[in-house]
UniProtKB/TrEMBL annotation:
InterPro entries: Gfo/Idh/MocA-like_OxRdtase_N (IPR000683), Gfo/Idh/MocA_Oxidoreductase (IPR052515), GFO_IDH_MocA-like_dom (IPR055170), NAD(P)-bd_dom_sf (IPR036291)
All residue ranges annotated as the GFO/IDH/MocA-like oxidoreductase domain in the record: 140-259
Gene3D superfamilies (alphabetical): Dihydrodipicolinate Reductase, domain 2, NAD(P)-binding Rossmann-like Domain
Enzyme Commission designation: 1.-.-.-
Top-level EC class as recorded in UniProt: oxidoreductase
Gene: ycjS
Transmembrane helix is among the record's keywords: no
UniProt signal peptide: none
Protein name, as recorded: Putative oxidoreductase YcjS
Domain (Gfo/Idh/MocA-like oxidoreductase N-terminal) ranges: 8-124
Keyword line: Oxidoreductase
Length: 369
């Protein structure tokens, strides 16, 4: 009999709600494959509270470097504010650990390329948390679309219309370019349009608008975009935190069927609906039904895919050029919105102001306004 793979030694950085909730739940779901050995938190009281919640013998640290030197984890889960992600991810990679980091993985394409360089130097990998890709409904939809079973993708709509009040933006790092990286384009809608890109593939052109309609923030509180894909499909993308009726939605009209996903913060099989075109016989649609096994989109689902990649010694999903495409889309949306000009894939390179900052030093949007 072959030996069972050893449990990976895991450390978490940050012990706020996303870590103590979603990441801890994911680790418990994969307790046969992971062992939480350490937590890093600058607030000693919150650190002790998390250690009590996690149970076991979780070592506590207030310094990331000290933890990496002492514990040498295989995997580091990062759930700190966005401005810390690049440096913490690079430090973990340099120690040889793989990383799973909350979105956005970093604040600019320049920072993303710093992470890519650290990956290349270390041989380890960093993935961004895009858990909506990993539910069984999303996996099934992508298989149907990419196989051509639903026909050519034609028209799509991606909607993240949420509501955040002034109390939400009272948290000092929110709504600021230097600490959050942007508004709902970076921090909220990124989950949905990442899934849209995952389903439809390579994008080629973006035209966009953005505005501050309600909140007194540096960044936008709403953005809209028109997107052209390499396969010819056209899409609209809406990102909002000023919408009282909250919903997350993707609709893709293909030649043979419309596929729709409607949810809020996570989806299961029942949230996906397929409508056949009139010329499609009923017997053909049997394969379109969602899978018998229902795997909700979750951190646990993505962690499972990452652990599979680790055990196989291959690049995990949601990393590398795959995840960079989503970051480039965000930068392109901002550049198109702030300049009023269309932006094409591959256009934003070193030397472009939108390569180093999502606001591109635009006089109406940069922090110095």
């Amino acid at each position: 009999m072959s030996a069972q793979p050893r449990r990976l030694r895991v450390a978490v950085v940050g012990t706020g709600g996303i870590v103590s909730g979603s990441h801890l739940t994911a680790l418990r779901a994969h307790a046969d494959r992971t062992e939480l050995v350490a937590a890093v938190e600058i607030d000693p009281d919150r650190l002790e509270a998390f250690r009590g919640l996690a149970g076991g013998h979780v070592a506590g640290y207030t310094d990331l470097g000290g933890m990496l030197d002492a514990e040498r984890p295989d995997l580091v889960l990062i759930g700190t504010p966005p401005s810390l992600h690049r440096d913490q991810t690079v430090a973990a990679l340099k120690s040889g650990a793989w990383v799973l980091c909350e979105k956005p993985l970093c604040l600019s394409l320049a920072e993303y390329d710093d992470i890519a360089a650290a990956e290349q130097a270390s041989g380890a990998y960093a993935s961004a948390v895009f858990q909506h890709r990993y539910g069984s409904g999303a996996v099934h939809a992508r298989e149907l679309i990419t196989s051509g079973e639903l026909g050519a993708p034609l028209v799509a709509h991606c909607q993240t219309t949420w509501h955040r009040d002034s109390e939400y933006y009272a948290v000092p790092w929110r709504g600021r370019w230097a600490t959050e990286g942007g508004g709902p384009t970076m921090g909220h809608g990124i989950h949905q349009y990442d899934l849209l890109l995952h389903l439809l593939g390579e994008w080629t052109e973006v035209r966009a608008m953005a505005s501050r309609l309600v909140h007194d923030t540096e960044s936008e509180d709403v953005s809209t975009a028109l997107v052209r894909f390499a396969n010819g499909a056209l899409a609209t993308v809406v990102n909002s935190v000023v919408s009282p009726h909250e919903v997350s939605r993707i609709r893709i009209d293909c030649a043979n069927a419309t596929v729709e996903l409607t949810h809020l913060y996570g989806h299961s099989n029942d949230d996906w609906v397929y409508t056949a075109a009139p010329h499609i016989p009923a017997q053909r649609t049997a394969s379109w039904r969602t899978p018998a096994a229902d795997v909700p989109s979750s951190h646990a689902a993505q962690l499972g895919a990452l652990l599979d990649a680790y055990e196989a010694g291959v690049r995990p999903p949601g990393s590398g050029t795959d995840a960079r495409s989503t970051m480039e889309f965000a930068a392109a949306l901002y550049k198109a919105a702030f300049t009023g000009a269309p932006v094409h894939a591959g256009e934003i390179v070193e030397g472009d102001p939108y390569y180093t900052a999502m606001h591109g030093n635009h006089p109406d949007w940069s922090p110095a306004r």
